Amino acid sequence: MATTTNLLQLPCEIILNVFNYLPLHDLQTCRCTNKALHILIRDSVVLQYKMALETAQAEDNPCSLAPYSEKLEDLRASEEAWSMVKPKFAVQIPVQHHPSGIYDLTGGAYLLGNIDRKTLHYLKLPRTLRDDRSWRSVTVDRTIIDMGLCVFEHDLIVIITTHRREQTEPAMFDIELTLREFSSDQRHPQAKEERILVMTSPYEKPAVGIEIVGDHLVLILTFYHHPHQPNDRVFIYEWRTSVLKANTSSSSQTHMQTPSRSFASHPSQPSRALRPSSLSHYPVSSRAAR
Description:
Layout: H1 12-19, H2 24-31, H3 35-42, H4 45-56, H5 68-84, E1 99-106, E2 109-114, E3 119-124, E4 136-139, E5 143-150, H6 151-154, E6 156-164, E7 173-181, E8 186-187, E9 195-201, E10 207-213, E11 216-222, E12 232-238, E13 243-250, E14 254-257, E15 262-267, E16 280-283
Antiparallel strand pairs: 1-2, 2-3, 3-4, 5-6, 6-7, 7-8, 7-9, 10-11, 11-12, 12-13, 14-15, 15-16
Helix pairs in contact: 4-5
C-alpha cells in the first residue's frame, strides 16, 4: 500500500532547499500556512535574503564573498536609507583631470574620460569612510570614442577607439575594440586577441552603442551627425574568440536590446510620438559571419 509523506516530516534542510526555488509570493503563502513553516522561513537567513532581494528588485552580487547574514544586513540598511532619503555618509572626491564626455557607472566603479581621449580614469565607489578613494587609469595609444563594461560577469572593459591610417587620402580611420581585464588593466586572459579591427571608415568618430552579454558583444556604430548620414552598422562578436557572428547595416538611429542569444534593434525615425518604426530580430548564429 502506497504511503504519503507530509511536508513537515522532511528534514529542514530539504524543505529549505525546495523553498529556495519558490518566488516571493509563494514563500509568503507558505509562511501563512502554519506556524512551523513560518518559523522555518523566518529563521532562514538565505530565504530572508532571497525575499529581501525580490522585494527590493535587486540582484545578488556574485563576486561578493560576504556571508548571507552580512548581505542581508547591508540590503536592509540600504533599503531603509533609500526610503528615508538618508545616505549612510557623503564624500566629495576631487576630479584632478580635465574630463571628457565619456563616463559610466557600473559594478561599483565610476569611469570618467580624459579630454585628451587617450585615458579613462576610474575609482571604486567607497562603501565606508575608510575605503580608498584614489583615481586609477586605463591608457591606450589611440583616440577613445567610448567604452563598454561587463565587470560582474567577466571583469571586462572594452574600449572603442579610432585611429587614422597613415598615408591615406582621403583620410580613413580604423575603428577598433581593445579588450582589457578591468581589475588589472592588462590584456584579458580569456580574449584570444587584445585588439579587434571592426571596420575602416571615412568617418572618424561614430556614435557608439555597445552591450556585452555572456559570450557575445553587440556593437552599433551610428553616423547620424555626418552630412551624408550613412546607415548604422551592427556587429555581433564572440568576444573571447574574436569571431564575427553578424555584420549588417540598418537605417539611422538604431537602438538595441540584447538577451543572451539574440539581438533586437529598433530603427527609429524622428517623430512626435518617438515610437520606433519597426523592430528587427537577429538570432545569434553559432557560426562565424562571412
